[in-house]
Amino acid sequence: MLIYLRVLKESFNFAINALKNNKLRTFLSLLGVTIGIFSIIGVLAAVDSLEKEIKGSLSALDNSTIIVMRFSFGPTEVPQWKRQQFPDVSYDEYQYLSRNLPNTQAVSYSIGVPNESIKYQDVTSTGVGVGAVTSEYYDIESLDLAEGRFFNEAESVSGSPVIVLGHEIAQNLFDGFDAMGKQVRIYGRKLTVIGVLEKQGSSLFGNSKDGQVFLPANLARRVYGDNNQGVFPQLVLKPEEDVDNAEYIAVLEQYLRNYRGIKPGDINNFFVNQLQGFADFIDNITGQLNLIGLIISGFSLLVGGFGIANIMFVSVKERTNLIGIQKSLGAKNKFILFQFLFEAIILAIIGGLVGLALVWLVAQAASQFTGDFDFVLSPWNMFIGTAVSGIIGLISGIIPAISASKLDPVEAIRTGM
């Protein structure tokens, strides 16, 4: 064991000497490994960061959440002309499913309405996202209140003139002053502020909750009506825990088909969208991005491997005399082999560590310029970078190391003189 540690120490010293004595040659040879590791870990870090941001944006809703509407989240075999004839989900259907659908934790009716301006005295916030929902939405989505409360069932059913503000909207309108109980104007009506949401931060998908307000869906129904093509009603359902999603969706579809009077054999005139399906779609996309990035980066590593092999062949030639002396003094073939093999691995790891350092610097700079979007350089990715570097060094150094170990000591000394 001690002899291998000594070999490792000597190999490390030889690698450092190679860097010191032949700076330009070693730099150019290691550049391929550095670029390759930078590319691979850069791709992994970028995809991990994108995946984290997407899932963070979706984390407010549980993956088991189901959304029923006349649009599909993904590709569908239903032709466009037929989809255009689908009716919107209705408030009556929401009430029907709330009363009758089994194994359901909560059902909410939500209306997608255009952005609006909201005013308090002489201060106006424009382009505000409006969440017109029923009271159950609070139980389905993770809404954290900084102060106040969400509207209750009675206020939801009656369409009371109440409103819950996002953090940014409250800051814009009230400039840090207490918003509770104040009246703001929207849709030409005065609504009383009953709650303010905790600050959420930016979201990858459009506005975050910070730039939104929530008000009762029945209030929005009075403003827009039930047959307005400019709004998009939807049902948001959360099944009870430990319920089989496939069975739950089958029961949900049957209840809605019965309510709408859809005949057996006819297709559904609505779409049941699952957030889990969307999350799986995101996983598939990020997996493909990783694969493409790894294939492209592999070419850089291939060039880097040739660079390491070139260093080692030159190193063997330069130290032929020393190899002959070591073997004449009793050094075994495996001692010589490990000496050069460790040297190749150490050189490759040095190149890989430089690549990792560059990724870290770029990630830090990118995080500063992109605000709330954080680039992730995980310990696992750092381990992958180091391991890949070592493997490249092992593969690239094996042939030069074998050739060095098989040198005849007499010929090696004569050649090196």
TrEMBL record:
Keywords: Cell membrane, Membrane, Transmembrane, Transmembrane helix. Residues 26-253 form the MacB-like periplasmic core domain. It holds the Pfam family FtsX. The chain crosses the membrane at residues 27-47, 291-314, 335-362, 382-404. One of its GO terms (molecular function) is transmembrane transporter activity. GO terms for cellular component: plasma membrane. It is found in: Cell membrane. Residues 295-409 form the ABC3 transporter permease C-terminal domain. It is a multi-pass membrane protein. Belongs to the ABC-4 integral membrane protein family. This is Putative ABC transport system permease protein. It comes from Salegentibacter echinorum.
